[in-house]
Every structure is written in structure tokens, then in C-alpha cells.
Design goal:
alpha/beta, Cytidine Deaminase, domain 2, 6-stranded mixed sheet, two-stranded parallel ribbon
Amino acid sequence: MSETTTITLHRSLVNRLLHEAQTRPDHEVCGLIGGKDGHPCSLYPATNIAGDPQRHFLLDPKDQIAAMKRMRERGESLFAIYHSHPTAPAVPSREDIEQIGYDDALLVIISLETKGVLELRAFRLEPSQIQEIPLEMEEV
């Protein structure tokens, strides 16, 4: 996937991401997105074990390991790490940038800050820059 390529998300995956964020509107939800052939296809929610889950996220290592195992079994690879921002825009925080941990994975952020419309954005984080990756939704 080139750095400027638009990412196409199936409506069912977008709906699951938005639903995850809405189930815990007062906490940052988090998890992994698996992909095949450079396309996102599966959602792997994880428990947020951060000390202050209203403002931070930290994937439960057990959930993360289990998700990576399921991805391997399905022939998938890590496509993105996702989390929500209950009261902030869908842009990476300094902490998000410092803790991403996977150079090849995108960071997908869902914001609940907007009134009536959920915001979903993706970013590639590199040491010297943050690049937003355009998203489009595909009906399937």
C-alpha cells in the first residue's frame, strides 16, 4: 500500500467500529484490524487496560496476542490499530504517536465528539510526520 492510497472500508467494518465506540461513550475503546492483501477485513476488539480509560488506551496484552494468533490462522496480517476519542477530535494525540509500536500499521481513530455524526479517520505515523490516509466506504 502506498502512502497516499485511499483505504476502502466495507460498510460492515465501519459499522462495527462505530458500534464499538458507541458501546462505551465514556471510555476509549480499542483493538486491532486485520487485513488480507493490503485490505482491511476483520475487527478484533481488545480490552482497554489503561489507568485512565476515559482519556487513554492500552490494549490488553492477552487480547492482543489472541487477536494476532487469530489473524495468522485466517491468513491475515495487522492492518491497523484502532481506538476512540470520546471527547476529542479524531486526530492522534502525542501519546498515540509515541505508543503506536507497529511501524507498518495504520492508526484509526473514531471520535464521538461531534454532535450526531461520528468521525472516523486513519493515519500513518512516521518518526518525522503524521500523514492522514483518505478513507472511503464501500457498500457490501
